Amino acid sequence: MLKPNWLRVKAPQRERIGEVSDLLLDLKLNTVCQEASCPNIGECFAGGTATFLIMGPGCTRACPFCDIDFDKSVRQLDPTEPLRLAEGVARLRLSHVVITSVNRDDLSDGGASQFVACINEVRKRSPNTTIEVLIPDFCGNWDALQVVLDSSPNVLNHNVETVPRLYKRVRPQAIYKRSLELLNRVSQNWPKVYIKSGLMLGLGETVEEVLEVMLDLHNNNVDIVTIGQYLSPGSNHLPVHSFISPEQFDYYRIKGEHDIGFLQVISSPLTRSSYHAGEVQRLMRTNPR
Questions:
Q1: Within 13 Å, how many C-alpha atoms sit on residue 149's CB side?
Q2: Which of 42, 85, 102, 266 has the fewest CB atoms found within 10 Å of its own CB?
């Protein structure tokens, strides 16, 4: 299926990309930008930003939409990773950082302690940087969730990814209601944290199903929603069912912000979970907690 014109990406500033890539290589850091073949990598690297991927690059789940390598082996956490990540944030002079991870179902806490270590080290080196964590579901281990939230990230992001009907095909090891419960627990117990979630379109969902998911997210007190086009990483992954038009993405943004009542809906073909994530700082100023 040929990509439409609206999915063409502008040529990036190669010099700036090289600077960020060299820094990541020097500090031996992984980014979801590289591991998941994000289409915005040129824009983000050129702007000096990256979404750091900890505890990877291998993931213990094999979601057929994702380009991150599958690795179910038991691996020890790297105690130097939080220090190296904090160094990267400081050297890039980031005002907002996103820290995400692969799924680590081999660990009893799903890697919650590593998230905390990374948050703490970033705060030491860059106290004015706001911190967003994009977390897995921890297999429903709510004690692990509490460990992460007690370290007081500014934004908690957990993606539902798709509509419930498609979970068995798209997220076979995840549970839609479990993800909603995670988001709700955050809102009930950590009211100062801004809550974020997102989903991909083009996997065979209907407009009605997307709106139902948006309502579910709002009913579980999500503040920010990201909606983007699914792009298949390769022949071994799920194929694209359809390409959603920019006008349809605009419809979801308007519907979400004006009718449903989210603080922000970032909706476009190239939107990803961390795309323009730093814009949350504006929401924090206008909607303080």
A1: 24
A2: 42
- Is residue 3 in some structural domain? no
Q: Is residue 2 part of a domain?
A: no
Q: Which residues contact 61 (CB under 8 A, 6 or more apart)?
A: 70, 103, 105, 173, 174
Domain ranges, residue 239: 10-284
Q: Could you give the angle at which helices 81-92 and 112-125 cross, rounded to 10 degrees?
A: 40
